[in-house]
Amino acid sequence: MSRSVAAELLLLALDEKSGKGLVDGSTLNAALAGTAVAELAAAGALALQEVDGGEVKAGRLRRTGVARPSDPLLAEVVDTCHGKKPGDAVGALTTMTFTDRGAKLQEQLLAELVAEGVLTHERGKVLGLFPTQRWPEADPAVEREVRERVRAVLVLGAEPDPRTALLVSMLSVTKLAPKVFPGDDGKAVQARADAVRESGWAGGAVAKALEDLMAVVMVTTLVPVVVATSS
């Protein structure tokens, strides 16, 4: 079954045994939103306006009318991105707004992976009061294939195809790469992920979305730290 890069990112971002996230929810939601934008651009549903005089200003994303996704949530992502700079589009899809479509995307992807038998959904309570959720693996073969493909790039030095390059780029901006491969040299793995992201494999709206996502992820990462240190 063909899965989105966002679904593959989500699989890698979950600890395969505990079923809990390896990064905080805000960072993951921003990364999923950024991945969705990049995938939609790569598919041709979104494009980066290069010159003024069109329906949107230069440097902003526009709907192309081509390859519009049948999925209602992804169609909503396309409409939200239209007329916005890539970074603003990612921000508009995440916790910077009251409508966190990044969180909705995560919920939808998790539900799909559970329905496919890739993950299981377990609910519990802490101290008998506070509800908890986790998504341990049900079929490890799916995540193993993704992990082996990414490890070939990050550890063995293989050249990525565009799909894997996008996934590795997301691991780079979220600093997830060393956490996904804890048994390998973390600094080397992160450096290789950064090198892939900066290699110029992407162009147009995809490259701009990746560039602007860095700033969005930095904000979502810093906010919890500021709150924690001020409380």
Automatic annotation (TrEMBL):
Entry GO CC: cytoplasm; endomembrane system
Record membrane topology: Peripheral membrane protein
Domain of life: Bacteria
Principal place of residence: Golgi
InterPro entries: GPP34-like, GPP34-like_sf
Record GO terms (molecular function): phosphatidylinositol-4-phosphate binding
Keywords on record: Golgi apparatus, Lipid-binding, Membrane
Subcellular location: Golgi apparatus membrane
Gene3D superfamilies from the UniProt entry: yeast vps74-n-term truncation variant domain like (1.10.3630.10)
Keyword Membrane: yes
Membrane recorded as keyword: yes
Name assigned to this protein: Golgi phosphoprotein 3 (GPP34)
The species this protein was found in: Klenkia marina
